[in-house]
Amino acid sequence: MRRRVLAMLVLSLLLAAVPTAAQAKGASEATISGGGPGGLPGGPIKMKGDGEPGSGNDLSNLADQAGVWAVLFDDGPGGELASTPAAADRGPRYTITWTFPNGAGTEDKVRQSVWPYAAGGPLTFMASGQRVLESTTKGGWFRSTDTLRQTLIGLGLPSRQPLTATSPTVPAPSPAAAPAQPMTAADPEPGVWPRVAAGLALLLVVAAAGALVLRRRANPGAATTP
User: Is residue 203 part of a domain?
Assistant: First the structure.
């Protein structure tokens, strides 16, 4: 009897220590759809497996590349973008619907938008407030590497190159007054010129008068007889 009780106690401890699918944070399935009118030519793409972080399988790797853990929970590793990227640089949008088994015996569906061909690298966006594993998503934008584009193409998305970033429109500068030229010794202020001209004129008059006096002294008139 004691051995049976001890065996049941050890089994209970082992079951409590081993995480179940309901306790795991990983997704069990991902469905890729969208891409514009008509969606994917072959219909939605489905992946199943163990999406637990670090498990190393295809589903887990896709979640890592899409930045799921960076924007899923508040205690994620971070890496999300601080601002919304320009719409002109994103390209066609796809949707990945992640399925997470929860502790209630049902499943939580979390949707994430993906732009695989965005300029500068694939973009993903997860809306905040989506119910997942007795919590809600933190949400946000995430910039991935080109590996995500190649992975999605390998799963069935069209083989396309990334977009080229559009050049931002630079507004024409407003007209501005020409900068004032620096004053130099050769460029006196405008108010000085009249005084300089008057002084030069006075010097010319004095020089002419002096020349006239000198000329008269050098050539005296003839003496008169008594």
Answer: no
- What HEC string does 118-171 produce? CCCCCEEEECCCCEECCEECCCEEEECCHHHHHHHHHHCCCCCCCCCCCCCCCC
Report helix angle 58-65 to 146-155, nearest 10: 140
Report how far residue 141's alpha carbon sits from residue 113's, in angstroms, rounded to the nearest whole number. 9
188 assigned to some structural domain: no
How far is residue 222's CA from residue 135's CA, in Å, rounded to a whole number?
130
The rounded radius of gyration (Å) of the Cα atoms in the chain is 44
Domain that holds residue 88: 19-141
Tokens standing for 163?
């977009």
pLDDT digits (tens, 9 = 90+) for 143-196: 999 999 999 999 999 999 999 988 554 444 444 444 444 444 444 444 544 564
Asked whether residue 186 is assigned to any structural domain, the reply reads no
Establish if 64 belongs to a structural domain: yes
Number of domains comprising the chain: 1
This prediction's pTM? 0.63
What does residue 194 show for φ and ψ, rounded to 5 degrees?
Answer: -60, -40
